[in-house]
Structures are given as structure tokens and as C-alpha cells.
Write a structure and sequence with these properties.
The chain is mainly alpha-helical. Helices cover about 85% and strands about 0% of the residues. It has 6 helices and no strands. Helix 3 crosses helix 4, helix 3 runs antiparallel to helix 6 and helix 5 packs antiparallel against helix 6. It is flat, with a radius of gyration of 26 Å.
Length: about 170
């Protein structure tokens, strides 16, 4: 970066050109730095996953990785079910509340808002002010279905995989 800055500044003749070239080089550095920071963050996550290979040396910790390996296919099926269900509710919320609330103005924002609802951040008062009948038909079934049904299915999948892993360790 310093070499590029010096070469760029050496080719400039006036003070304005030097300032402009310096600003261009620094802007390019900032743009490239953003990509490197992103790649470094992804590398850190992937490097962290390497820790799991050391779990094989402990029988109790190996149960964790074996449970994850056994449950991954069922969890992917459950994730697909969740995605279809979320998309259906996002279309319903977009259709029902899209013209009245900015949170549901288009399909991507509707998906984002519903995901936020799953994480506990809901604007129930705004929904109730808009249309309380539609809230009863859409919001409460959405929360109930995801909180109780999908979550219990996920826990059951993990529990069955853990029981299979524990049984194979005991044998």
C-alpha cells in the first residue's frame, strides 16, 4: 500500500493531483480491506471447527460429534420444512400487512421480520393496531407452530440421535 501510494504520488505533479491520487489509493485500500476482513472472519469460523476433531480423543466429547453427525440429515429435512413454512407465512404476512406496515412491505422484508419474530423481537402492538383479526389468524399460529411444533421436532431429532450414539458407545 505504501509502495503504491509512493508510486502514485511520484507520478503526480501538482498538490491537487497528489491529494486526488492519495484519496484514490486510500479508497481502493478501504474497499480491498473490506474483502480481506470478510475472508478472515470466514477463515476464523472454519478454523474454529477444526477444534471438533480433537473431541475424538475423549469418549464423552466424541458423543457430541457423533450425535451431530447422526442428526444432520434429519435436521436438513426439518430445515427444509421450516423454510417452506416460513416462506408460506411470509407470503401471507406480505399479503395481509404489506400495504399497511413497512415491516411487511415486500417479501424479503417480510421474511426478515418473521425471522426476527422467531428470535423474540416482535411488534405485536403494531400488528394489533393494523388488524387484530389477521393477527389471530396469522401471527399466533406462526409463533405457536415454530415455537412448539418445529422446536419440539428439532429436539426430538437431536434426542433420538443422542440415544443412538449413547447406545453404540455402551455396546
Amino acid at each position: 500500500i505504501i509502495v503504491a501510494l509512493c508510486l502514485g504520488l511520484a507520478a503526480a505533479h501538482t498538490q491537487e493531483e497528489i491529494e486526488r491520487k492519495g484519496a484514490e489509493v486510500m479508497e481502493e485500500y478501504r474497499r480491498d480491506r473490506g474483502h480481506w476482513v470478510f475472508l478472515n472472519a470466514v477463515n476464523m469460523v472454519l478454523s474454529f471447527f477444526k477444534v471438533f476433531k480433537y473431541f475424538r480423543h475423549s469418549q464423552r466429547l466424541a458423543q457430541f460429534t457423533d450425535t451431530c453427525a447422526r442428526s444432520v440429515s434429519d435436521c436438513l429435512v426439518l430445515l427444509f420444512i421450516l423454510a417452506v413454512e416460513m416462506f408460506g407465512f411470509a407470503i401471507a404476512f406480505f399479503t395481509g400487512f404489506g400495504g399497511m406496515m413497512d415491516d411487511y412491505k415486500d417479501l424479503p422484508s417480510s421474511c426478515t421480520t418473521l425471522f426476527d419474530v422467531l428470535l423474540g423481537g416482535s411488534d405485536l402492538s403494531g400488528l394489533l393496531d393494523t388488524d387484530y383479526v389477521l393477527v389471530g389468524l396469522l401471527f399466533f399460529p406462526f409463533v405457536f407452530m415454530n415455537t412448539f411444533i418445529i422446536l419440539s421436532m428439532f429436539l426430538t431429532v437431536i434426542g433420538v440421535a443422542f440415544d443412538d450414539t449413547r447406545d453404540s458407545v455402551l455396546e
